[in-house]
């Protein structure tokens, strides 16, 4: 009977990243850590040509890498297929939660408050959480689940961080927007896998006890 535990080498980098993201959301700072960090990054982004391309290129790279990794793992490691499929569904759920969060919080983007480098989306296109960060860190979680190689997971997390920082530098998100998006992208796929496998384990155990 398969264990409901995910390999530590797959989960540890994701846990560290989620803890850092949670710290960015929760830690207080005079003037707000998120606002101070956002103003500094968006100011720095003003001097970067085509800064909006950073996040888009990074997300495309992550999407391509995730597709390749998941396809390779699907064929080479049949025992992980259920987890690979669940991680993909988890990323979709995380994205839907991110979209729901935007409607719930209805937070205006920083570019509507002060001048920033990137083009500001239309009013009503809300800021919190960041869909880009949700998808980028969700891709990192899917890569970790598929192969469980720490160097690859750390690389994916680094690229996801570039995507998140790029969105802040562009001026379309606050730091806490991308941090919350990161938490959704990392946590939802893992929690879905753990929950489904725990339920499957319980059903099989009950069936075995009944037969015995």
Structure description:
It is a single chain. The protein has 212 residues and is an all-alpha fold. It has one domain (33-202). It is 74% helix and 0% strand. The protein contains seven helices and no strands. It has helices at 8-26, 33-45, 52-76, 81-105, 131-147, 150-170, 175-211. α1 runs antiparallel to α5 (131-147), α1 crosses α7 and α5 packs antiparallel against α6 (150-170). The longest helix is centred in the last third of the chain and has 37 residues, at 175-211. The protein is elongated.
Topology readout:
Layout: H1 8-26, H2 33-45, H3 52-76, H4 81-105, H5 131-147, H6 150-170, H7 175-211
Helix pairs in contact: 1-5, 1-6, 1-7, 2-6, 3-5, 3-6, 4-5, 4-7, 5-6, 5-7, 6-7
For the record, give the distance between the C-alpha atoms at the N and C termini, rounded to a whole number: 16 Å
Q: Biggest sheet, open or closed, and with what strands and sense?
A: none
What sort of overall outline do the alpha carbons produce when their principal axes are compared? Answer: elongated
**Overall tally of structural domains:** 1
- Content of β-strand: under 5%
**Low-confidence segments, ≥5 residues, pLDDT <50?**
none
Mean pLDDT equals 88
Structural class label? mainly alpha
> What is the number of helical segments per DSSP (H or I, 4+ residues)?
7
Radius of gyration: 19 Å
Query: Fraction of residues in helices?
Result: over 70%
Order of helices and strands: HHHHHHH
Number of strands: 0
């Amino acid at each position: 009977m398969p264990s409901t535990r995910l390999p530590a080498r797959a989960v540890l980098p994701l846990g560290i990243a989620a803890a850092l993201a949670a710290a960015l959301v929760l830690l207080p700072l005079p003037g707000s850590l998120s606002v101070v960090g956002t103003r500094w990054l968006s100011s720095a982004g003003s001097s970067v040509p085509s800064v909006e391309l950073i996040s888009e290129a990074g997300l495309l790279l992550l999407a391509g890498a995730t597709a390749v990794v998941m396809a390779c793992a699907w064929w080479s490691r049949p025992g992980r297929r259920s987890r690979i499929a669940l991680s993909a569904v988890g990323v979709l759920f995380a994205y839907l939660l991110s979209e729901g969060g935007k409607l719930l919080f209805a937070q205006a983007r920083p570019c509507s408050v002060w001048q920033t480098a990137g083009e500001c989306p239309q009013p009503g296109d809300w800021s919190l959480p960041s869909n880009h960060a949700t998808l980028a860190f969700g891709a990192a979680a899917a890569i970790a689940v598929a192969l469980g190689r720490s160097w690859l997971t750390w690389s994916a997390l680094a690229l996801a961080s570039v995507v998140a920082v790029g969105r802040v530098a562009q001026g379309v998100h606050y730091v806490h927007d991308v941090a919350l998006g990161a938490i959704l992208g990392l946590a939802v796929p893992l929690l879905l896998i753990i929950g489904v496998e725990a339920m499957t384990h319980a059903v099989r155990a009950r069936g075995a006890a009944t037969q015995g």
